[in-house]
């Protein structure tokens, strides 16, 4: 998501969540923290869908659309961030990589 589309508050919230993940890699591997973060996003997005539905039947009707939407959003954000890392890979210090 480019800077010109999202408000500052979006980036502030994302930075806070990333800071928590970065803190957790002191005690767990990046891969394990990444898995937990991915699960948390799925859990919270499921809550988002449930919160906007009036009942379970509405959730059932909206299920496939929600899966399509969140999958597409994640894919686009992942592509954008992978491309950013690829373009700026030389700027990353070796001590910034964690096992």
Description:
The two termini are 27 Å apart. The model has no long low-confidence stretch (mean pLDDT 92). Helices cover 73% and strands 0% of the residues. It has 99 residues and is mostly helical.
Overall pLDDT level: 92
- Amount of beta strand: under 5%
Number of helices: 3
- The amount of helix comes to over 70%
Largest sheet: none
Rough outline: globular
Uncertain segments of ≥5 residues (pLDDT<50)?
none
Structural class: mainly alpha
Cα(first) to Cα(last) distance is 27 Å
Count of extended strands: 0
What Rg do the Cα atoms give?
16 Å
Q: What's the SSE pattern?
A: HHH
List the helices and strands and how they pair.
Layout: H1 8-24, H2 30-52, H3 56-87
From the structure above, extract its key features:
99 residues; globular
Give a quick summary of the entry.
The chain has 99 residues and is mainly α. It has helices spanning 8-24, 30-52, 56-87.
């Amino acid at each position: 998501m480019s800077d010109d589309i999202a408000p500052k508050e979006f980036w502030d919230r994302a930075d806070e969540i990333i800071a928590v993940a970065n803190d957790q890699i002191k005690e767990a591997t990046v891969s394990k923290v990444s898995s937990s973060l991915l699960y948390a996003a799925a859990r919270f997005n499921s809550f988002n869908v449930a919160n906007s539905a009036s009942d379970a039947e509405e959730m059932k009707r909206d299920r496939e659309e929600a899966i399509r939407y969140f999958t597409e959003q994640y894919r686009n954000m992942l592509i954008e961030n992978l491309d950013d890392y690829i373009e700026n890979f030389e700027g990353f210090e070796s001590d910034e990589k964690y096992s």
